[in-house]
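Write out this protein's structure.
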Amino acid sequence: MNVVNDDLKHLKTSMDVNSVSTWQCDNLISKTSKLAYIHKTGPLKNYAYDAALACKGLQMQSNKALIKKSGHKGALRKFDDLEAVMGKIAVSSGTTLDSLLMRRDELEKDLHRLSSNFGDYKNAIFTSWTKVQSALGEHDLAVEMTYVEPENHDQPEFDSGYFACVLGKNMQGPEIVYIAGKDSIAAGVDVYKSTKLSKTILGALKPYLKGVENIYYSPIGVFNQIAVESLPLTDDLQQTIASKYNVYRVSSTRQILDGGMYVEGENAVVYGGLKYNASIDELKEDARKYTRSISLEMTNDAEVDLRSIRGLVKKLPYLQGTAAEASSVVERINSASDSRLQAVPMIGTDGTEASFKSLG
């Protein structure tokens, strides 16, 4: 336990950009989750949850509010670039994936360095499970997904794979449960054709689901590519996890501390069937729909940014079925008799970054 404690303390004090890496974060999440599951002691479970909070904060997926508050245009632009790269990582492989991972690490380092000037950077990232628990409601459950790497690929760890650090309002502290091995989870349309994965997840979480209405869920690894809330609960595929629970996907459950994450409204926008390989001219033309005027300088900057991202890959694969899925979701929302929402589809070249940013 002292080794894990020392690693977490080192992470909290080592804020130099050259000493913090995605690999270190992934390694700490893996190490703390493994020890917590094996030894099942309260302090180790606490460390595992806190490590997930800290590392996902360092990876900048839950820290945009701090950057937005700073008003630093360079940092905001880099964060947008990082989000775009992260989205492509989820659907890439081979040399393309390697290039994207290198770009991700570069952007993270730049953002770490810039963010050190924005207020109390450490406090904005590092928090503890106790603060998350205090922000939970009586019917809330926080779930931090973690991943344990096999330490010896010739003799894989018997419990390597995906785990969940679970926290409820009235629990004495976080608990950690085994979800599934890496090789048993695969993204794709097939996961939505049976109840296998939903039963696996809910079966592991069952001891903590009594009275739960809202689940705040932070994915990792392949789970970033799976809409857990849309997994079927029944063999006829008519009911999903979202039919039983309000599932809120968050980058980190520390976002619960920010409050006001979800606001009920009257309009919805559904994206699907996106044209990832649209030309720069197409994207600039689309952007004109959402801005009253675009200066030459802004247009040139946008072109440079797009090239810096798109130059990393030759072509991103079209996500089969997403256009039909988006259209189906819009139809269901608009035809529901008890729905106060009116949904608009953003499909193909209509679904751009500019359209998303225009939502406010």
